[in-house]
Design a protein that fits this description.
Elements lengths: L5 E3 L6 E3 L3 E2 L12 H13 L4 E3 L8 H10 L7 E6 L1 E4 L4 H6 L11 E4 L3 H15 L6 E4 L4 H4 L2 H24 L5 E6 L4 H8 L4 E5 L10 H11 L2 E5 L6 H4 L14 H16 L4 H7 L7 E4 L6 H12 L4 H9 L11
Parallel strand pairs: 3-4, 4-5, 5-8, 8-9, 9-10, 10-11, 11-12
Antiparallel strand pairs: 1-2, 6-7
Helix pairs in contact: 1-12, 4-6, 11-12
Amino acid sequence: MDPFKKRKLGPTSVELPQMGFGGAPLGDLFTVVPDSDAEATLNAAWDGGIRYYDTAPWYGTGQSEHRMGRMLYRKSEPFAFSTKVGRRLKRPVDAAAFAAKPRLWAGGLPFEVVFDYSYDGIMRSYEDSLQRLGFLHIDMLIIHDLDFMYHKTEPRVAAYLGQLATSGFRALEELKSAKLIGAIGAGVNELGMMPRFLDLFDMDFFMLAMRYTLGDHSALAKEILLCEKRGVGFVIAAVFSSGLYATGPVPGAKFNYEDPTPAELDRARKIEAVCKRHGVTLASAALQFPLHHPNVASVIPGGFKPEHVKANIESLKANIPDALWHELKHEKLIAEEAPTP
């Protein structure tokens, strides 16, 4: 596959290359990334031809946006960019107590997060992102993590959906109408949320993590079909299922951010064996699988070293014989209805 071939994103005029770069690792997701490594990684992505970058205020509580902005804001060649809304960053009242608390990020910047899906909250988040990035325009703005993974209970999820419906979504519509953004999306981690968004809003696309991958395409049967009927597009994040489908079933590999079950390890082992029989790496199959769906515009693997980016580009370029996909379906390792050659 050509990593740089353009695809239209849903009903919008935004066009994305088939592969972009996901910025979560540059927020020190699992390990502290030195500035020199972050700079070298982003330079490798740009020099390798990548022209779509995604980040969020949440990634390292501002750090990923700062790092991407420093590399990109002086570029004269066009590129596509997405960031997210729904969280505002603020100075902690007690900085010492905050620093002592456990955090998701191994490093990152020392800011507290406030969830805010209101009109004012989204406008403030958008303006803050512009300043961290050094940009005057963002191609895609994504409602971030309005789901049970972060908000846990139905009353909290319903309350934030209500806040977005009665207040915040108007901000997104105004930004799009003023051509300050080109597309409105929502980041989704779990089943059940896409239909709720579609019931309330005119969505251009979803950034779908973990639920349409080689290792888990549980969204295909119902939710992606619903989006197809509405013409909604997709960007696929966490395409390696947070590690297992990049490294294979090695000790310490994660599956959807958890330790894989014996059944999940066995399935990955069987898929990897099929790939080896056809002379294909597991990572190549994982990167290319979602792009066979006509509504998927791009996949966005991340990385925190130049060699990660270079390997991903080469993996997407790799030639995969049709017979591999046929064998995976015959062995019931991927769904029969999954689009493949």
